[in-house]
């Protein structure tokens, strides 16, 4: 458990006010950023807020991480269940990565050979996602299903060193979902091989 280390500084208070004013100026919902950030750091997913609020909230959390008491396992569960939505809402992988590095349980194992089913459109832009699995069949389901809806999908394979793995699968991912999801740093991947491409998914 990470303990709150200090009260918010004057700069932090000003940061909160600037965020609130920017939201009000855009005529979006008025929201207490401290409360929103606290819910997120308690493992609670909040969906009824604009995308802009998600961006500002992650920036606030990263800048004031020492003020939060949180359980990394709660953040991990939040990420496993809602990671795709969070990534889409924030639309800034570097910002999401910075948050995950500070909050997820740390990986302590060695190098792994992992697979990912990626959206072809994102792969072509070099925007490879965070979540990988040692189960090729699981990655293939994403490559030909959920991640193939917009533009088709690709099945990826790579060897990932321990320095690039943020967190190992939790019980929910390993036992309940059967996906064995490893959260990785997309900026530290080695050579990525495309094993197979899939056409756009349609029901």
Structure write-up:
The structure is a single chain. With 203 residues, the chain is α+β, with helices and mostly antiparallel strands. 43% of the residues lie in helices and 15% in strands. The protein has helices at 10-25, 33-41, 51-63, 72-90, 93-103, 120-124, 136-144, 171-176, and strands at 112-119, 131-132, 153-160, 165-167, 182-184, 193-198. Strands 1-3-6 form a 3-stranded antiparallel β-sheet. Strands 2-5-4 form a 3-stranded antiparallel β-sheet, with no helix packed on it. It is globular.
Describe the structure using short key phrases:
43% helix, alpha+beta, 8 helices, three-stranded antiparallel beta sheet
Helix content: 40-55%
How many beta-strand runs? 6
For the biggest sheet, the summary is: 3 strands, antiparallel
Q: Strand order across the biggest sheet?
A: 1-3-6
Overall pLDDT level: 87
Quaternary structure of the protein = single chain
Structural class: alpha+beta
In short:
Helix content is 43%, strand content 15%.
Question: How are the secondary structure elements laid out?
Answer:
Layout: H1 10-25, H2 33-41, H3 51-63, H4 72-90, H5 93-103, E1 112-119, H6 120-124, E2 131-132, H7 136-144, E3 153-160, E4 165-167, H8 171-176, E5 182-184, E6 193-198
Antiparallel strand pairs: 1-3, 2-5, 3-6, 4-5
Helix pairs in contact: 1-3, 2-3, 3-5, 4-5
